Amino acid sequence: MPPDEHLDKMRLELRRGVVIIAVLLQLRTEHYGYALRQALEAHGLDIDEGTLYPLIRRLETQGLLTSEWREEDRRNKRFYVISAEGRSHLKQLLTEFDSLFATIDTLRNGRTR
Amino acid sequence: MPPDEHLDKMRLELRRGVVIIAVLLQLRTEHYGYALRQALEAHGLDIDEGTLYPLIRRLETQGLLTSEWREEDRRNKRFYVISAEGRSHLKQLLTEFDSLFATIDTLRNGRTR
Predict the structure, then answer these.
(1) Looking at domain B3-108, does it have CATH number 1.10.10.10?
(2) Is some CB atom of chain A closer than 8 A to the CB atom of B45?
């Protein structure tokens, strides 16, 4: 594999876990797919539809989100929101995230945690 | 898949990308495998040998680390250190990491970035 592909793969791995946290955080408030994508983009996270939409459907299948169809602006949209189980997962993922961040932070600055 | 397995898988995904950054950061100073593992543990990151050792060998194959065998305390040990290419990758991974962290941070606090 050429060097740049290694880097791309590493960046993708790094993003993958964080994207789930971002989606769960944003869906503490109800959103339909496109509005979710825009909200995440406003927070600096650009996810293409081909990644985001399968992800939210998968999170719903796993019971971490619930959804309902509703009409808005004369169009039917599927609104997603985090479930109680999703909140519990999110809490534990954030604990892990904080711990990983603290590790990187101290390694960067050469301190012992 | 039962709920707990989903969570474990998500936590693992989250860790995977960060672990590479942690290893590259720590190997700005030369370490042999076991000493690297201890140093990361001191920074709050516990990685088992079965994960860490294949990872550093893979990073060397990718040209991000270099290594040499040397005797220390009357035993031959393989010392690893980051390469110029590794430093370049690390810099870009840290940029991505900072961006992802900023996203999560603002989402958590409900601010717009």
Answers:
(1) yes
(2) yes
